[in-house]
């Protein structure tokens, strides 16, 4: 039996742990992107190893919630969130394992509400007492007293009150001494000194004083050397080096020039100048990433809103960039099965300005990579696109640029470059053509409305050499709009879904068998919506229709004779999207965008795939000790949260151990059975007077952990038990997920 100490096992288990799908569902989940927030607040969730970031884009009525996983930002889609605001106070309440948000302002309205984020959902709390509505308050979690401390802020005037949150209500403190009233100060808990530290802010002018809070009173700390007076400054605590790190806050004479990093060691401030540093800014968000042992800084406002991410290791700043396609409308996407990539081309970048993209991107399952071919189609949006498996090429047709009109050219992508084809015959310019490959006949089918005669939709086929117009006796009605095509592998037909333009008229479903269009009359159908994409795929080899509502997406599944709702509408926050089915990873990849006329902030990459449900179940049986057979139970292992293993019915005041393994075993040990395989890790503990003990595990929010099993078993010291001297619980099989 190979054993490790539990402390050394935690990173190893976190790298493998927990996942399966005893009852799989499908759901949307965000892929890392870039938060585009003009004003944000951040704090570190120490239980889940995540930095929580909240802020409000200009075109959203509620706050967006993002989390930093050490490498990238992940945006959460939540059914409920605090209303839009800026300059809110945010701190992680480690005693209650919740992120607490208070106050903020939008236009002339100040907020005095309190919200809690548990890693999956927001809940508005209803405390019996609260601070007055305000914005720009300073806040930090006081670990020594297990309280969230809030100071100052601005209502009609700057405030100088101190409040504490105990998990249930706010209580105003009445210290003998207090910092002067201020707004937009930096506040952080200095764990080495067990004090809350406050610096700067502004009253009538910026301030440069330093104060500490010991849970009872404030004390001003003399600082012969200190950062220049400033407000809109941010700070975090680096426990590895026992330093407070301070950054941001514009200052004279060059408010937006290079910034100087300052650190506090408990007695003095020290300026640290580095060759590379974030520019000076007002109101950045800062928190400490304990897993990666780095301070993190995000955004703020300089001469323009900033959305950059930086990390500080105590010696150097490093900017972190995540390359993703910029926000766009009318982009074209198709899956390249030969190279196992999703290919994206073009789109409308700035609706009001008419800027159109001509860039090429590829999705490889790990992220987006921009390709830079020597030759490309002219910038455009609304193109038709499909993959030709016989020639291993992505084929793109037409599209418009909003200025010169609609194109009628044909291009092919081979994974390295674009090549324009010159067929003898070609379709006319078609507005938003729909394309899909007909696997049954080895051709790409295109359907759409010619620009010159939109009332007579046309059907064309591409065989890799030229275009051939088909003349079926029956076609879908010309009044259909937003038609989309996909190949149905079950019936081996091209499927068409279109929207009837009259409100409430719903959709129509048609099939192309290679020569004729035939209307299908399913019992159910996706409702009329703002738009659709059709994608083949899924483990059942059915066609999926992704419907676009007002900032929501729903999925319907075609089983060959009827449409079935596969998911409820989920808030993805978009005005348009394109999607493709990534067969290599069994996921729909969707790139969404916001209404660019309002503010180019929303959108992002989303995946629709199997998401296992968290579950736990007993394995085998235990063997008795003096208090009977001890029992082991576990909470459902939900990724991104903490789970507990609870030992009960054990001998009181006894040594015990929790065993963990990624393999199941079945090894007799006297009258007992060890249900854990090698390697096995043990966490030592002891039972209380009631024979109870508990172990808590933090599960990272990492989709790669969804398909690994973990087994647990507990053991209790029993001197009278023969021959082992130990009582065993039954085993426990844990499967993590949503």
Describe the 3D structure.
The protein has 738 residues and is an all-beta fold. The chain is 1% helix and 48% strand. It is built from one helix and 61 strands. The strands form 15 sheets. Strands 1, 51, 54, 57, 59, 60 and 61 form a seven-stranded mixed sheet that branches. Strands 43, 44, 45, 46 and 47 form a five-stranded antiparallel sheet that branches. Strands 2-50-49-48 form a four-stranded antiparallel sheet, with no helix packed on it. It starts with a strand and ends with a strand.
Give a brief rundown of this model.
With 738 residues, the protein is mainly beta.
Quaternary structure type: single chain
Radius of gyration, taken over Cα atoms and rounded to an integer in Å? 30 Å
The helical percent reads under 10%
N-C termini distance:
33 Å
Q: Give the count of helical stretches.
A: 1
- Overall pLDDT level: 86
Shape: globular
Strand residue content: over 45%
Total DSSP E strands: 61
State the major sheet.
7 strands, mixed
Unreliable stretches (pLDDT < 50, length at least 5) are: 1-25, 595-602
Structural class, by secondary structure, is: mainly beta
State the main characteristics.
single chain; 738 residues; mainly beta; 1 helix; globular; disordered N terminus
């Amino acid at each position: 039996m190979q054993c490790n100490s539990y402390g050394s096992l935690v990173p190893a288990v976190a790298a493998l742990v927990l996942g399966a799908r005893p009852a799989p569902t499908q759901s949307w989940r965000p892929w890392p992107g870039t938060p585009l927030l003009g004003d944000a607040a951040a704090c570190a969730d120490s239980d889940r190893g995540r930095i929580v970031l909240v802020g409000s884009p200009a075109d959203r009525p509620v706050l967006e919630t993002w989390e930093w996983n050490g490498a990238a930002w992940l945006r959460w889609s939540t059914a409920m969130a605090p209303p839009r605001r800026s300059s809110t106070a945010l701190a992680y309440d480690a005693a209650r394992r919740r992120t607490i948000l208070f106050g903020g302002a939008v236009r002339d309205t100040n907020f005095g509400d309190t919200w809690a984020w548990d890693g999956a959902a927001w809940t508005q709390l209803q405390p019996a007492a609260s601070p007055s509505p305000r914005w720009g308050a300073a806040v930090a979690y006081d670990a020594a007293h297990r309280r969230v401390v809030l100071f100052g802020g601005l209502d009609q005037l700057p405030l100088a009150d101190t409040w504490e949150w105990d998990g249930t209500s706010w209580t105003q403190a009445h210290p003998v001494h207090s910092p002067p009233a201020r707004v937009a100060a930096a506040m952080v808990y200095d764990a080495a000194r067990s004090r809350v530290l406050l610096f700067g802010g502004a009253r009538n002018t910026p301030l440069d004083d330093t104060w500490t809070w010991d849970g009872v009173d404030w004390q001003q700390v003399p600082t012969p050397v200190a950062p220049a007076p400033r407000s809109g400054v941010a700070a975090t605590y680096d426990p590895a080096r026992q330093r407070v790190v301070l950054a941001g806050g514009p200052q004279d004479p060059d408010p937006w020039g290079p910034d100087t990093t300052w650190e506090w060691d408990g007695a003095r401030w020290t300026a640290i100048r580095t060759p590379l540093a974030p520019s000076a800014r007002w109101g950045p968000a800062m928190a400490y990433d304990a897993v990666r042992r780095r301070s993190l800084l995000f955004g703020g406002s300089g001469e323009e809103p900033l959305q950059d991410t930086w990390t500080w290791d105590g010696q150097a700043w490093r900017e972190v960039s995540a390359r993703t396609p910029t926000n766009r409308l009318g982009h074209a996407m198709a899956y390249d099965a030969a190279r196992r990539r999703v290919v994206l081309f073009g789109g409308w970048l700035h609706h009001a300005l008419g800027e159109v993209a001509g860039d090429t991107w590829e999705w490889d399952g790990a992220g987006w990579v921009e390709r830079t071919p020597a030759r490309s189609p002219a910038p455009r949006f609304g193109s038709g696109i499909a993959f030709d498996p016989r020639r291993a090429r992505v084929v793109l047709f037409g599209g418009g640029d909003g200025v010169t009109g609609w194109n009628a050219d044909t291009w092919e992508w081979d994974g390295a470059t674009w090549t324009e084809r010159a067929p003898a015959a070609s379709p006319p310019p078609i507005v938003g053509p729909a394309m899909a490959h007909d696997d049954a006949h080895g051709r790409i089918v295109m359907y759409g409305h010619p620009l010159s005669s939109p009332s007579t939709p046309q059907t064309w086929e591409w065989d890799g050499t030229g275009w051939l117009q088909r003349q079926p006796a029956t076609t879908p009605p010309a009044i259909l709009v937003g038609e989309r095509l996909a190949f149905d592998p079950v019936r081996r037909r091209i499927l068409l879904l279109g929207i009837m333009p009259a409100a409430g008229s719903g959709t129509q479903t048609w099939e192309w068998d290679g020569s004729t269009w035939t209307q299908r009359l399913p019992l159910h159908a996706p409702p009329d919506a703002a738009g659709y994409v059709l994608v083949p795929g899924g483990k059942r080899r059915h066609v999926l229709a992704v419907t676009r509502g007002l900032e929501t997406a729903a999925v319907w599944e075609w089983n060959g004779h009827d449409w079935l709702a596969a998911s409820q509408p989920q808030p993805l926050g978009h005005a348009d999207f394109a999607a493709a089915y990534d067969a290599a990873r069994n996921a729909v990849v969707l790139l969404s965008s916001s209404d660019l006329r309002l503010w180019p902030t929303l959108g992002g990459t989303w995946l629709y795939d199997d998401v296992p449900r968290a579950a736990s179940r007993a394995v085998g049986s235990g063997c008795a000790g003096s208090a009977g057979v001890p029992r082991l139970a576990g909470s459902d292992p939900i990724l991104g949260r903490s789970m507990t293993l609870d030992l009960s019915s054990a001998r009181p005041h006894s040594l015990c151990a929790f065993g963990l393994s990624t393999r199941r075993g079945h090894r007799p040990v006297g009258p007992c059975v060890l249900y854990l395989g090698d390697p096995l890790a043990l966490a030592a503990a002891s039972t209380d007077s009631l024979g109870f003990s508990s172990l808590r595990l933090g599960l990272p929010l990492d989709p790669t952990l969804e398909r690994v099993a973990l087994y647990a078993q507990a053991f209790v010291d029993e001197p009278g038990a023969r021959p082992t001297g130990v009582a065993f619980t039954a085993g426990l099989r844990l499967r993590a997920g949503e």
